[in-house]
Amino acid sequence: MNSISAHGSRHPPRCLSNFRVAHAEAVADKAVQFRIVGSDSETEGSVTGHSLEVLNKNYQGPSLFVSPLTLLWKGAKAPAALLDTAMHGYHGEMRASATLRGSSTPSTYKCPQCGGTWFRFDATFRYWDAALDLWEDEPEIAIEDYFNGFSLSGKCTTCGTDSTISEMEKL
Ligand SMILES: [Zn+2]
Predict the structure, then answer these.
(1) Cα-based distances in Å from 72 to 26, 39, 61, 82
(2) CA of 47 to the centre of ligand 1 (A)
(3) Distance between CA 7 and CA 57 in Å, rounded?
(4) What is the pLDDT of residue 2?
(5) How many domains does the chain have?
(6) From the CA of 153, how far away is ligand 1's center (Å)?
(7) Which of 22, 37, 60, 95 sits most deeply, having the most CB atoms within 10 A of its CB?
(8) How far is the centre of ligand 1, averaged over its atoms, from the C-alpha of 138 (Å)?
């Protein structure tokens, strides 16, 4: 049987359908990372989402965004939806997501180093044993959509700093 990371690198989750995958790589036993670019191969974009520290007053840590996440490519007229945990990921697919999610006006992510808003993006999807069990029971299912963890990292195109823009588990 295929490993989930080998399968996933050939089958990007459906939330990436608004994008092109420039590079896919199994980064661990149960994780796949994609370099995402625009449908016209744009490489530089800004991201909007919802600040975790605004939604959860008890959160202390680096600035992180939760979904819905949207990317706007440099030069593009309209943003493209990237991820919404209400419908994407293991529990989202089952319409049973309990993950913290923003519903007010989204904000634009800023580089923690220089305040810049343009990045190149890597998205990582992680799968837990629950997804492997589901795949075993239903081999025909699009298991790539049933990820349990997601992170979005960005390399600031102004100063070159890498930052973690979003990091979500228990999806
Ligand atoms: Zn920067």
Answers:
(1) 26, 11, 26, 10
(2) 14
(3) 39
(4) 66
(5) 1
(6) 13
(7) 37
(8) 44
Find the 6 Cα to ligand 1 centroid distance in Å: 33
> Going by C-beta distance under 8 Å and a sequence separation of 6 or more, which residues neighbour residue 156?
111, 113, 114, 116, 118, 119, 162, 163
**What distance in angstroms lies between residue 168's CA and the mean position of ligand 1's atoms?**
22
* Upstream peptide bond of 68 is cis (omega within 30 degrees of 0): yes
Q: How far is CA 148 from the centre of its chain?
A: 11
Residues contacting residue 146 through CB under 8 Å, at least 6 positions apart:
89, 90, 93, 127, 130, 131, 134, 135
Q: Indicate the pTM of the whole model.
A: 0.95
Distance of CA 159 from the midpoint of ligand 1 (Å)? 4
Q: How far is the CA of 62 from the centre of ligand 1 (A)?
A: 15
The closest alpha carbon to 93, from 10, 171, 17, belongs to: 171
Domain range for 135 is 3-168
Q: How far is the CA of 118 from the centre of ligand 1 (A)?
A: 8
CA 124 to chain centre: 6
CA of 149 to the centre of ligand 1 (A): 26
In terms of C-beta density within 10 A (0-12 exposed, 13-18 middle, 19 or more buried), how is residue 121 classed?
buried
At 95-135, the pLDDT tens digits run 999 999 999 999 999 999 999 999 999 999 999 999 999 99
